[in-house]
Amino acid sequence: VYNARGELYTGGIVGYIEKGTVSECAVYSSIFANGKDTTMDSYTGGICGFSREGAEYTDCLFAGGIIAEKCANAYLGGVSGKLIGGKVERTVATGSIMPSEIISHTYIGGVAGEELSEPAVKNAFYKKGIINEEITGLYGKELTESAISKKDSFTGFDFNDVWSISDGKIELKNLPKSN
């Protein structure tokens, strides 16, 4: 996914969401947001770029990569770059999140770079080391490489019908597997 136009709302599934549900989805691709002249803000997430109240995410996996560059401010997250309220349940981020050439501030997190209006986050996880900057996002639990490959690390996940772990990778059962 590549975005280099105006205000950057960039996500693996959707750029901007208000009052909608995203469930049982996985993103394995790279997401690249380029502000071109450093005057625009970048809202970039593994699943969604910018989420408003009423957005819900359940059983979502981000295993790709995010690069945001030449932006005034960068909001980067494994689920959503900026999350205003909403609900996040049973999500996993194992992909890398990297800002580059950010002029003012970088807001970055395993679930969201910046959260406003306290979203309801339950059982959201991200892999240790996917973020090479100071983490500002408050939500989500960081898991080591070893822990992220074990079912008992994921409280509340359905490993009978929805999720699986094979070859050390967590995946959704009913979707195509990564290459």
Shape: globular
Overall pLDDT level: 90
Instruction: Classify the secondary structure makeup into a structural class.
Output: mainly beta
**What does the radius of gyration come to?**
15 Å
Number of strands: 17
Number of helices: 0
User: What distance separates the N and C termini?
Assistant: 17 Å
Order of helices and strands: EEEEEEEEEEEEEEEEE
> Would you identify the regions where 5 or more consecutive residues have pLDDT less than 50?
none
In percent, how helical is the residue content?
A: under 10%
How is the main sheet built?
Answer: 6 strands, parallel
Classify the beta-strand content into a percent band.
over 45%
Which SSEs are present, and which pair or pack?
Blueprint lengths: L1 E2 L4 E4 L2 E4 L3 E7 L2 E5 L7 E4 L2 E4 L4 E7 L2 E13 L2 E5 L2 E7 L2 E14 L2 E5 L3 E8 L13 E3 L19 E4 L2 E4 L7
Parallel strand pairs: 1-5, 2-6, 3-7, 4-8, 5-9, 6-9, 7-10, 8-11, 9-12, 10-13, 11-14, 14-15
Antiparallel strand pairs: 16-17
Verbal overview:
The chain is mainly β and 179 residues long. It has strands at residues 2-3, 8-11, 14-17, 21-27, 30-34, 42-45, 48-51, 56-62, 65-77, 80-84, 87-93, 96-109, 112-116, 120-127, 141-143, 163-166, 169-172. It starts with a strand and ends in a 7-residue tail after the last strand.
Key features of this structure:
179 residues; six-stranded parallel β-sheet; globular
Short recap of the structure:
With 179 residues, the chain is mainly beta. It contains no helices and 17 strands. Strand 16 (163-166) and strand 17 form a beta hairpin.
